[in-house]
Design brief:
By secondary structure, this protein is of the alpha/beta class. It contains 23 helices and 19 strands.
Length: about 700
C-alpha cells in the first residue's frame, strides 16, 4: 500500500487523539505527510559567537553555573551561565509559580555545572554584553558524553502547542523503520547518477536523521530537486500543449489604424519599445496562441505597447479586452486610450463594478454584437453572462493581481478555441528566475525609460527638513505627495495616519497651500474627483495611503514624502516612487522614519542606491524570501518545503533540464509522474492554455 494511504494513527505512539491533533494543527494525515513534514531552516547548531539577536537559534553549550530568581508576582526563572570554545552566554527558563510544587525542580536537578546540553530559543544581546537566550527547548547530555554526540546537525520541527521535537523525532523514526522501503523512487537510476542525487529513501532518512552534515545537505538537495522538477514538468507540459493547439483565427495587418496612430503620437518609440512591439507582432501572427509576459519598470511605456498590439487586432476585425486590478487604474487606462486614439474610428468602453445595472446591461449587449472594439474593465468583466462576439486578444495589467482561474475564465468569453494573452507587470521578475519559473511564457522586457525622464533622487531627511523642502518646490509650481501607512489612527500602533496628519498639516506646515486627502476607504467616484483635481493642480499637496501606488500620472508632481518608510516593502516603495518623475523636472523621493531591523535598513539602502526595477526586484526577492515575494497561491506556484528559489537556482536549472528531457523523450515516465506525483502539487489545469 502507498504510504500516502496509510493513516498516521497506526504508528506507535500516535493513536486516534494525537492523529486528530496532527491533522488539525499540521495537516498530517498519512505516513507520507509525516515523512515530508520537514525540519526548520534554523536547524544548524551554532557556536555562541555565531548567535544573532532577534532569531530563534540552537547552540550546544556547557553549563558553568546556575541560579534561580523571581520575575513579578507569578513568574519564577532558572538561569544558567553557559559557554563553549567561542564565548559565554546566559540561558534562561521562565515558569509560572505555584505554591503547591516547585516548577523548577526538574531543571535544578539535571542542569548542573559540567553537563553539556543543546538549547533552542530566541536570542537577545542586552545583558552585560552577554548574549541571553530565552530557552524554549533543551536536551541534556552527561558531562562525559563524547563531544560529537549530536554531530554538527540537530533537526528541529515547526511546532505548535502540545507538541515537542522529541515526539516528532520518535514517530518519524518509527515511520522510517516500518515504511522506508515503501517510499517509491520515481527518478530512474541513470538520472540519479547524472545529477548526483541521493535515492529518495536515503534522502528522506537523512533529512530527518542526518548521518553527517554532507548527507543532510544532499538530502535537502534531492527533495528540493523533486519539488522543482514537478514545477518544471508542469511548465513544459503547458508549453507543449500551447504549441499543439493552433489558433482558429488570423490577423491581417492593414495598418489602417496602426499608421495614423503612430503618426499622431507626440513622441517616438524607444528602441526597447520598438523591439518589444516587433516581438509581440511576430507572436500574434504565429499560428499558435500567444502567452506572453511584458515586463517593464514604472514609466517605461508598457501601455502604448499594449495599445499598438490592440490596434492590430482591431483593424483585423477583432475585439480586445484590457483587464485592470482596480477601478482607478481601469479609468486611468480609459483616459489614456481615448487621448491616444483621438480621431481614430475605435470604440472604447469602460466596464467596472460601480456602473448602474441599466448601463451594464446596455454595454453587455454592445460587447456581444462587437460594437465595442476595446473593453477596459476590472474583475467585473468576469461576470458569467458577459460574452464577446469575436474577442481575440486579452491584455492583463498588473498580472500578479489576477489568478490563473480568472485568466482562464476571461479566455472562455471568446468564441474562439483559444485567444492571445498579453500579461503586463511593473514588478519585474528577477532576471535569474524569469526563464526558469516562467518557462511556459514568452517574456518581453522594456529595459529603458523614454527620453527626457530624469531619474528620481531618493534621500532621507528629518520630517521638518522634508516639509521645508516641499514648500520650496510648491513655490516653483510643483506638487507634492505625502504618503502614510494608515488611513486612521489605531491604538495598536504608533504609526501616523493620513486622516489625522492631513488635518494637522493643513493647519500648520502647509496652511498657505491647498491640501487634498485620498485613501482606500473613499468611494470610487470620490477618488476619481480628488485625482482629477490634483492632476488639474487644484491641490498643491496630496496626502495619501498606498492607494496611489498605481494609476496616477501627474507630471508636475515632483516630490514624494513617505512617512514610516521603514514599514513598507521594497516593491511598494519602488512603485510609490514611480508616481513622481513622470515629467522632465528633477524629482525627489524623501524617506522618513528610523529603520530598526537589518532588513528595513537594507531596503532603504537599496532604494537610495538604484532606480533599476530589475535590481530592486532581485534584492526584494532576497530580503522578503520566496513565499512572501510570490504572494498567495494566485501566482500558480507551489509552496516549496525543501527548495528555495532564491538560493537553489542551480538545482532549479538542473530540474528544468531534466523536465525538458522527460517531456521530449520519456513518455511512460512522464505519465507515471503525472499520475503519482505531479497532480498533488498544482491547481493549474492543462486547459489554462
Amino acid at each position: 500500500m502507498s504510504i500516502k494511504k496509510i493513516p498516521v494513527r497506526y504508528l506507535k505512539g500516535v493513536g486516534e487523539k494525537k492523529a486528530a491533533s496532527l491533522e488539525r494543527k499540521f495537516g498530517i494525515k498519512s505516513v507520507y505527510d509525516l515523512l515530508y513534514y520537514l525540519p526548520c531552516d534554523w536547524n544548524v547548531v551554532k557556536n555562541i559567537s555565531e548567535l544573532t539577536e532577534g532569531h530563534k537559534q540552537t547552540a550546544k553549550v556547557r553549563v558553568d553555573d546556575t541560579s534561580c530568581g523571581t520575575a513579578g508576582y507569578s513568574m519564577v526563572f532558572f538561569q544558567a551561565s553557559v559557554s563553549d570554545s567561542t564565548g559565554k552566554a546566559i540561558a534562561v527558563w521562565f515558569k509560572y509559580h505555584n505554591r503547591n510544587y516547585d516548577p523548577l525542580a526538574t531543571l535544578k536537578k539535571y542542569i548542573v555545572p559540567g553537563v553539556s546540553m543543546v538549547i533552542t530559543g530566541s536570542v537577545q544581546c542586552k545583558e552585560f554584553w552577554l548574549k541571553k537566550m530565552n530557552v524554549q527547548e533543551f536536551e541534556i547530555f552527561p558531562a562525559d558524553s563524547p563531544q560529537n554526540i549530536l554531530g554538527p546537525v540537530r533537526q528541529f520541527y515547526p511546532l505548535q502547542e502540545g507538541f515537542k521535537n522529541n515526539f516528532f523525532r520518535k514517530i518519524i523514526a518509527e515511520a522510517l523503520k516500518k515504511y522506508s522501503g515503501s517510499i517509491d523512487e520515481i527518478i530512474p537510476e541513470k538520472y540519479l547518477r547524472e545529477y548526483s542525487l541521493l535515492k529518495i529513501a536515503d534522502a528522506v532518512k537523512n533529512i530527518h536523521f542526518p548521518e553527517s552534515p554532507g548527507l543532510k545537505d544532499e538530502a535537502r538537495k534531492r527533495l528540493a530537486f523533486d519539488e522543482f522538477l514537478n514545477l518544471e514538468l508542469k511548465l513544459e507540459l503547458l508549453r507543449k500543449q500551447r504549441k499543439c493547439r493552433k489558433k482558429d483565427f488570423r490577423y491581417n495587418m492593414t495598418k489602417e489604424l496602426l499608421t495614423p496612430f503612430r503618426q499622431h503620437l507626440p513622441f517616438e518609440f524607444t528602441a526597447a519599445q520598438t523591439r518589444v512591439i516587433n516581438e509581440i507582432f511576430e507572436n500574434l501572427n504565429d499560428e499558435y496562441p500567444m502567452n506572453r509576459l511584458l515586463q517593464g519598470d514604472v514609466g517605461s511605456g508598457k501601455t502604448v505597447v499594449a495599445l499598438s498590439c490592440s490596434l492590430l487586432a482591431i483593424e483585423s476585425g477583432f475585439q480586445v479586452v484590457l483587464l485592470a486590478p482596480t477601478e482607478i487604474l481601469a479609468e486611468q487606462h480609459m483616459l489614456t486610450f481615448k487621448k491616444m486614439l483621438e480621431g481614430l474610428p475605435v470604440t472604447i468602453e469602460l466596464f467596472i463594478g460601480k456602473m448602474k445595472p441599466k448601463k451594464k446591461s446596455e454595454l453587455k449587449k454592445r460587447i456581444a454584437v462587437s460594437v465595442s472594439n476595446i473593453v477596459i474593465g476590472t474583475h467585473a468583466l468576469l461576470e458569467e453572462d458577459i460574452k464577446f462576439k469575436n474577442l481575440s486578444l486579452v491584455v492583463i495589467d498588473e498580472q500578479q493581481k489576477f489568478g490563473v482561474e480568472q485568466r482562464l475564465n476571461m479566455k472562455k468569453k471568446s468564441p474562439f478555441a483559444s485567444v492571445d494573452l498579453l500579461m503586463m507587470t511593473a514588478t519585474p521578475i528577477p532576471r535569474t528566475l524569469a526563464l526558469t519559473l516562467y518557462g511556459d511564457l514568452d517574456v518581453s522586457t522594456i529595459d529603458e525609460l523614454p527620453p527626457g525622464r530624469v531619474p528620481v533622487k531618493t534621500l532621507r531627511m528629518t520630517e521638518q527638513d522634508a516639509y521645508n523642502f516641499a514648500r520650496e518646490k510648491i513655490k516653483k509650481g510643483e506638487q507634492v505627495f505625502i504618503v502614510y501607512p494608515l488611513v486612521d489612527e489605531s491604538d495598536k500602533t504608533d504609526l501616523k495616519s493620513a486622516v489625522r496628519e492631513a488635518e494637522k498639516l493643513k493647519k500648520n506646515e502647509f496652511r498657505e497651500y491647498s491640501v487634498g486627502l485620498i485613501h482606500g476607504r473613499l468611494k470610487p467616484e470620490e477618488k476619481d474627483s480628488i485625482m482629477s483635481d490634483f492632476a488639474a493642480k487644484k491641490y498643491d499637496v496630496l496626502i495619501s495611503t498606498t492607494v496611489i501606488e498605481v494609476g496616477i500620472d501627474v507630471p508636475s508632481a515632483t516630490t514624494m514624502i513617505i512617512e514610516h518608510s521603514d514599514r513598507y516593502g521594497l516593491a511598494t516603495l519602488h512603485q510609490l516612487r514611480g508616481r513622481i518623475g513622470r515629467g522632465s523636472r528633477e524629482s525627489h523621493c524623501i524617506l522618513l522614519g528610523e529603520p530598526k531591523t537589518e532588513n528595513s535598513k537594507r531596503r532603504l539602502k537599496v532604494l537610495m542606491s538604484t532606480t533599476d526595477g530589475f535590481r530592486i526586484a532581485e534584492e526584494d526577492l532576497f530580503i522578503r524570501g520566496q513565499g512572501e515575494f510570490f504572494g498567495t497561491a494566485q501566482s500558480g506556484l507551489p509552496l516549496f518545503k525543501a527548495g528555495n528559489i532564491i538560493t537553489d537556482i542551480e538545482i532549479l536549472k538542473m530540474a528544468k533540464t531534466l523536465a525538458e528531457k522527460i517531456v521530449r523523450n520519456e513518455t511512460p515516465l512522464l505519465e507515471r509522474m503525472i499520475r503519482e506525483d505531479l497532480k498533488d502539487y498544482y491547481n493549474i489545469v492543462l486547459a489554462e492554455v
